[in-house]
Design a protein that fits this description.
The complex is a heterodimer.
Chain A: E1 2-11, E2 14-24, E3 29-34, H1 40-47, E4 53-60, E5 63-64, H2 70-76, E6 78-81, H3 93-100, H4 102-108, H5 110-123, H6 125-129, H7 140-152, E7 158-162, H8 170-187, E8 190-195, H9 198-204, E9 207-212, E10 215-221, H10 222-227, H11 229-235, H12 240-244
Parallel strand pairs in A: 3-8, 3-9, 6-7, 7-8
Antiparallel strand pairs in A: 1-2, 1-4, 4-5, 9-10
Chain B: H1 6-9, H2 13-34, H3 36-44, H4 66-71, E1 85-92, E2 99-104, H5 105-122, E3 129-132, H6 141-152, E4 155-158, H7 164-173, E5 178-181, H8 183-195, E6 207-211, H9 217-227, E7 230-237, E8 242-248, E9 255-257, E10 262-267, E11 281-287, E12 298-304, E13 306-307, E14 319-320, E15 325-326, E16 331-333, E17 336-338, H10 340-351, E18 357-362, E19 369-375, H11 385-403, E20 408-412, E21 423-425
Classes of the chains: A alpha/beta, B alpha/beta.
Chain lengths: ~240, ~425
């Protein structure tokens, strides 16, 4: 479904991504893990058109989408949930969802928009309860749910999730990942997930890529990466043996 | 038609190409960072892993030979620290420097998966009883077969070579359905059966997976008819895994290479140019999933060609033609790779300087036989008959010991053979 071939990208003179090739098949949850500054977020931004690709190509459903504008990519079915819960805090939950459904309104009209919002309330019942509350007053986990719901309003084929667990309590993180797994199972949603919390990400994903300073160093099935001692040490916290040795 | 991992085995070609590119790029990133030999040879040609754009770029990378592996003994070619290695194999012991190959837990898991694919492709499943005969040690095949057979849930009987009559008995009483062996060993089984006056009806054998040495189609026909089974070929490469690199499906039209783990290339052994698909040349293999001991463009010394047409079994991975010949100065006998240096080392120790010699491999019956012809010179003459005989006996013993099995030695007059030709292989496979 999504295919990156030799993607190079960076900010100004600083090269961040070096020859990144990854792919995501339809219906898969694939995770991209790595340390701070490895280039995970940049990869997502390159896919969603927020970051210029200096070299290489990106294909979505066989179509070359390299350096297309973000607006166009949303229409093609790629939605990104940005890092740090970028919601409109002074607006209500319902208004946020309406904004997320801007394209739905434009293409299919008001009735479809209402239906989509109702669907989101089905998926995230907590949002229905908070419908007329200001988004800024929601808890962190609820804000993250709202951010995901906003991206889902456009019925994307591919969801790019950037650090959904950031700054959330472990219990809430579990809920978020449950939601992702649920969306994948019931709706067949394809997800590319960027995470620092590698342990949780590898449990929900089928495959994973490990990034290090802008390069992919491992690409394996998720269970294999969970067992990989190098990955364990670098991203999953030390083994007990390492601490006591 | 049964598959073990249909998603991977029947992947479309575009998917294979993308997976190969991704895995190769990550392998290059890792070896450049962790293996000094690769870093050095890459720097020599001014190559950085991030310059690697397409599988075509592989052609520009330097080769790895068996000599490189020896030079980097013991840890030089390892891409992970030893604490992450869970298994070490030493497939080459009888040469100047041993070669030791390491495997991480994940490598072994992949090996099990590959062998499971192979066994399933041949037709085995959890109801089968697999008798594994290769000797454990220098031959690493048995480990892989065991991993794979246990993965598919079959019963494994590891019974390293020798005592074929007893093996036949076990084969009968435990209803062995599959035999994993060298073709020579399978012929030995056949002989024991006729000694014991047994026919194939008394056994439950259905499959034989044979390899580790070249064998002819005629041998296949003989074994299939007289043992009443399907015999398929398997290609092993101890520097990579052992068996599990390529294997025949029941179509018997060449050996499928697991392209999601290995990239095969064919080169001209003289010019080292990559040859177009379908042409015959030396097989070069790049591993793209191995963690502990990755090999980039490893020269196998084996002559074959790549068959890219799709196979009737539905697997999309390409095939290699059966392997009968080599292009390096070596031959394979009794499942072991022999090079002339092994003999010259013994000679230089016993004789002083190395006289001209020639190794002749023949197959008079169903067993390979090696004769070492040594050109007689001043230093080998003794006045006493007894001394002379003792000298030849010593040669015979020492050479046989270094090879690990019986070889015959003959002293001949100068001019009896072409001194430039160190190996004469009179066996006929094709």
């Amino acid at each position: 479904m999504l295919r990156l071939v030799n993607v190079h990208s960076g900010y100004g003179l600083v090269r961040v991504l070096r020859n990144v090739s990854i792919h995501v098949d339809k219906g898969e949850v694939v995770t991209l893990i790595g340390a701070n500054g490895a280039g995970k977020t940049t990869t997502l931004r390159a896919i969603s058109g927020l970051q210029p690709v200096q070299d290489g190509q990106i294909f979505f459903n066989g179509r070359d989408i390299t350096n297309l504008s973000a607006e166009k990519l949303v229409r093609y079915g790629i939605a990104q949930v940005p890092e740090g819960r970028q919601i409109f805090r002074p607006m209500t939950v319902a208004e946020n969802l309406e904004l997320g459904g801007y394209l739905v309104y434009k293409l299919h009209g008001k009735r479809q928009l209402r239906a989509s919002i109702d669907e989101m309330f089905e998926l995230f019942p907590i949002l229905r309860e908070r419908k007329s509350q200001f988004a800024g007053t929601l808890s962190g986990g609820e804000q993250q749910m709202l951010a995901i719901a906003m991206s889902l309003m456009g019925r994307p084929q591919l969801l790019l999730l950037d650090e959904p667990s950031m700054g959330l309590a472990p219990l809430i993180v579990r809920d978020i990942f449950k939601t992702i797994a649920h969306l994948n199972e019931t709706e067949g949603l394809t997800v590319l997930l960027v995470e620092q919390n590698a342990n949780a990400a590898l449990k929900v994903a089928v495959r994973g890529y490990v990034m290090e300073t802008g390069r992919i160093i491992y690409q394996e099935r998720a269970d294999a990466l969970l067992e990989n001692p190098e990955v364990r040490r670098a991203y999953l916290g030390r083994d007990k043996g390492d601490i006591w040795a | 038609m049964e598959y073990w991992d249909q998603d991977r085995e029947c992947m479309d070609r575009e998917g294979i190409a993308q997976l190969q590119l991704e895995r190769l790029q990550s392998t290059l990133n890792r070896v450049y960072k962790n293996v000094q030999h690769y870093r050095k040879t890459f720097l020599d040609i001014d190559f950085m892993p991030e310059d690697f754009r397409s599988l075509e770029d592989l052609k520009a990378l330097p080769f790895i030979t068996r000599r490189n592996l020896m030079e980097n003994y013991p840890y030089g070619m390892f891409a992970v620290p030893l604490r992450e290695v869970v298994r070490l194999h030493a497939p080459v012991l009888n040469q100047d420097d041993p070669v030791v190959v390491g495997f991480t837990r994940h490598d072994l898991k992949n090996w099990a998966e590959l062998m499971a694919r192979c066994l399933t492709a041949v037709g085995l499943d959890k109801d089968d009883v697999v008798q594994v005969s290769p000797t454990v040690g220098v031959m690493t095949g048995a480990f892989g077969v065991q991993l794979g057979a246990e993965r598919i849930g079959a019963s494994v009987i590891p019974l390293p070579g020798g005592n074929t009559p007893a093996q036949v008995k076990i084969m009968r009483d435990f209803r062995t359905t599959a035999l994993i062996a060298t073709p020579t060993f399978a012929l030995g089984i056949l002989r024991s059966m006729s000694d014991l006056e047994m026919s194939c009806n008394m056994l439950s054998l259905r499959y034989a997976i044979l390899g580790a040495e070249p064998w002819a189609e005629a041998t296949r026909t003989e074994l299939e008819n007289r043992l009443c089974l399907t015999a398929t070929d398997i290609y092993s490469l101890a520097e990579i895994f052992g068996p599990g690199v390529a294997w025949e499906c029941p179509q018997k039209q060449g050996l499928h290479i697991a392209e999601d783990h290995f990239i095969p290339e064919i080169i001209d052994p003289e010019t080292l140019e990559t040859l177009p698909a379908g042409e015959e040349g030396e097989l070069v293999i790049t591993t793209i999933s191995k963690q502990a001991f990755p090999l980039i463009r490893f020269r196998t010394g084996e002559i074959t060609r790549i068959i890219s047409e799709s196979c009737a079994c539905g697997r999309t991975h390409c095939r290699i033609a059966r392997l009968y010949r080599r292009c390096d100065e070596a031959f394979v006998m009794q499942g072991d790779r022999i090079i002339p240096e092994q003999v010259s080392r013994v000679l230089s120790r016993l004789v002083g300087d190395v006289p001209n010699f020639q190794m002749v491999v023949e197959r008079p019956g169903d067993q390979d036989q090696l004769t070492v012809l040594i050109e007689i010179s001043e230093g080998m003459f003794f006045d006493e008959m007894r001394k002379q005989r003792r000298f030849v006996e010593e040669l015979h013993r020492e050479i046989s010991m270094s090879l690990g099995w019986e070889a015959s030695v003959r002293l001949v007059e100068p001019g009896t053979f072409d001194v430039k030709q160190k190996i004469v292989d009179r066996r006929e496979f094709e």
